[in-house]
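Quick check before the chapter quiz. The format below is the same one you will see on the exam, so make sure you can read both the input and the output lines.
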Amino acid sequence: MFFNKPFHDLTFNDVVAFCQRRLPEGKQLDYKYMLPKNHEKFAKTIASFANAMGGTIIVGVQDDKNDKPCPPFTGIAYHEKIRNSIEDIIQVYIDPIVFVDINVCVNDRGDRMFIVINIPQSNLTPHLVGKSKRAYIRTGQSSRPEAIVHPDKLPWLLDHRRKSERLRHILYDKAESHFDNYLKTRNLSAAGQTSCAISIVPLYPEEPLTGYKQLPEIIKFSSARAPWGVMADPDFPLQPVQDGAAVISNKRGVYRMTEFNSYGLVMSKQIITQEEIVNGHPAKTVHIERLAQNVTLFMLTARKFLTRLSFGGPLYFRFKIDNIRALRALFGKQQATVLEDYLRMDRNLSLAELETQLPGILESILHEAAWSLGLPANEHDLRALLSQYLEEAH
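Here is the expected output.
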């Protein structure tokens, strides 16, 4: 939405280029020329973003009467303690504390800077400001960018989060049903089959992060590939769905659907079992190596997609495999018969974690999956395998 690169990679020149686009302030964007002397007012802006959809504040930019950045874009004088000052304001004036990302973008001479503050959508709302303990939400209106949520209206803010949770469940359930409905159009069924669904969606979706018309280009940009597979194969046409689009591929009889939604959801679902001869007998099998390949490609694709959408709020990740009882699970030379009926893992993640901690996240997911399928995988072997897959994929 704002920057097409990881937040902590932003440079002084990136901010200049962004300001030259002359985007006006809105529901998720605010300009400040200086760090305001009224610290409580600054805290109000931060809290209002956290209580709503999250947002970005750029300090060092003047705006005009139309709320657009006004040149020249030279930032403000460098101050080495600016980060500490912002963190102190948050700790003193906001309860509970809002956790933000701060990038101090310094010019080549080291004497001027922009401060870019990314405020995630919070799962700890309502955040109250000052001694009066007032809650604010970001409206995006130029005349009243932040609106007070009076104490008797706080239940509304909490209910607003509950409505977002319901929307998250609806987005997830609809995406899953699309795969099953597609199989039905081919006179096939996932009933009794072992299917794997991997998904990421904003923890509190509220409104579209992009228009559905922009999705084809974003999907093309986001699709991760490796010598052993493609997550959203561009050789297959996009299937439009409400507020989104799906790529449904069928290679060698393996059906896979990868759906992208304008609210920020990404889901990949496919049938994962194969008939193989194990110890001289036919058996339905699932390979940890193939699960690792799928999860690696999915995470890289989701990371690219969310980066393009500039979504910095909390994310809800789910990894689910249905109908696994009595399957033969294989990892290298290890094998086991699965005792569970199904496997499900849920995690709260963030885009920042996907950018900086992806190898560890993948290892944690795959180690728990292998364990649940009856295979206590060696951590060193699993780490080496994932390192190889990440090196091969892009």
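If your answer matched, good. The two ends are 22 Å apart (CA to CA).
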